[in-house]
Amino acid sequence: GDAAFFYMRDAIANIQLLRIDNPELAATLSPPERSRRQRMYWQAYIHERFLAILDYRHAIMPPLYTLPEDDCTIPVQVHEGFNQIIKLFRLLDTDFLQSWLDTQASGSTGTVTSSWVESKSRELEGDPETDARDLANLSAMQRADLTITREWLRTLVWRLAMGQTLLSSRSSKECLSLLFPIRLSQTLRHQVSNMSRQDIGVHGSSITQKLFEITDTIADVLIHVPAATLDETALRIDDFLFILDFVLLFPQLDQTRRGILLEKLERLQTMFPEAVSNASSPNLPVDIQSPMGNDPWYQVTQSKTAAGLEEIAEAQAGNTTTEIPRLEVRHGQLATWNVISKRLSKATFGPA
Q1: Where are the domains of the chain?
Q2: Residue 29, Cβ density class (10 Å: 0-12 exposed, 13-18 middle, ≥19 buried)
Q3: 29, 138, 184, 307: which has the highest count of C-beta atoms within 10 A?
Q4: pTM recorded for the entire structure
């Protein structure tokens, strides 16, 4: 909000007065003091970048000419973990932030291209072996921060690509796939299952905001990009509900964001009402997932599940023997549909 922006700029002004970005002046300081001031600069840099994304504001701090130097007065683990976070936030460079601001101002992200998205995604992915080795030396609390921050940044890149309609359900590249958030939900579920809530919650409202944005994006894809089969839909819903339950239990999640997530849960619940069918009176929901004409997602996707349900309903008519296998398939799909419906209907979250 405005207060956070004011205090952030005030802190930055004081840091600039110290001229930490001047290597010659920094050289006159003792190594521990120089490292301390470098950490202070980067701390402000990270927070300003986060606020720039959260509130669509301009950032004024350039990256410092160096990472914090080694400091014998703090644990090596703390030093290494902080450097890893800095490296992630350095990816929010001038081009990235300007593209993000453009989405708010005009809905356009003209500088974002497929090659830019692929490049940013490669930077975020890094080297799996090196990353695994670096994470192994950190505490569970540090790993939680790094892991969730990385997935949040990947979500931001994907949203920029979506703003330029660069996504496709047929793309072989994960970063350009409409289904990326669905795959992310599977990965994130596995990751948070191996973390304690305390290791995540200790990072406060910032990490809760990151989890909110990831969960919100996953919900949008579930609503607007139907799976090819109901079995796949059931798996997606299960992953989403696990993450939703995890996020909603954080006390730092404010009522506005909580309400947004619960509204999307309600939308999913209305998409999958309980269906009953018998030989004389079929009652199958056939159009409830069709995108609305004014829905911006309609430009990039159309419902497959609804069409499949229409085919099921149409197959109810007729009594020739060639339709018996189709009846068996139909009833199997109906059972899966009702499993999804029951799972969603039981997902009730009371007031925080």
Answers
A1: 109-290+302-313
A2: middle
A3: 184
A4: 0.82
Structure-block tokens of residue 329: 């398939």
Length of the chain: 352
221: nearest Cα among 190, 243, 245, 254: 243
What does the angle CA 157 – CA 160 – CA 161 come to, to the nearest 5 degrees? 90
Distances (CA, A) of 204 to 123, 145, 200: 26, 10, 8
3-class SS string, the chain: CHHHHHHHHHHHHHHHHCCCCCHHHHCCCCHHHHHHHHHHHHHHHHHHHHHHHHHCCCCCCCCCCCCCCCCCCCCHHHHHHHHHHHHHHCCCCHHHHHHHHHHHHCCCCCCCCHHHHHHHHHHHHCCHHHHHHHHHCCCHHHHHHHHHHHHHHHHHHHHHHHHCCCCECCCCCHHHECCHHHHHHHHHHHHHHCCCHHHHHCCCHHHHHHHHHHHHHHHHHHHHCCCCCHHHHHHHHHHHHHHHHHHHCCCCCCHHHHHHHHHHHHHHHHHCCCCECCCCCCECCCCCCCCCCCCHHHHCCCCCHHHHHHHHHHHCCCCCHHHHHHHHHHHHHHHHHHHHHHHHHCCCCCCC
- Written as six digits, the tokens of 114 are 């497929």
Token digits of residue 218: 């996953």
**Dist CA 234 CA 90 (whole Å):** 38
C-beta of residue 88 within 8 angstroms of C-beta of residue 134:
no
Q: Give the residue among 304, 221, 302 at the shortest CA–CA distance from 264.
A: 221
